[in-house]
Amino acid sequence: MQQERNLQHQFRMIGLMMKISADKKLESLGLTIEQGLAIRYIDGHEEGGLSQKDLENSFNRKGSSISSLVNNLEKKALVVRKADPKDERRKLLRVTPAGKELVGAFDQYFEQFEHTLLNGFTPDEANLLFRFLERIEDNINEDKITFDHRR
Question: What is the pTM of this model?
Fold first, then answer.
């Protein structure tokens, strides 16, 4: 019996497979994919100053989840929180020298992983895939349908 094609299931499975694969590769560094992505993101946005709240918004995650992520990176001495010179109450995230050493390795890993994901696609197919995914993302952002559990 052939399983029914379900786009939501397919996206969940691909996301899960990507996370498992990436976590295995980053395991030797004692990091998860989300921690690696966070370090790269913080490093790329240090110039203007990046707060924990900015990271929450960029990663579309709850405050407690990002707080736990940043705490773990701090314990590993990969990021630090510094007071914002313009507002002492606001803490800016900075990548430590040890964290910066990993950024190059992350960049190389993510480039290789993207190559693996697109293996067998022609450049035109890859461009088309990106266009389709962007359209799906736009559709989700425009979705006004609400769920009424009382029906």
Answer: 0.73
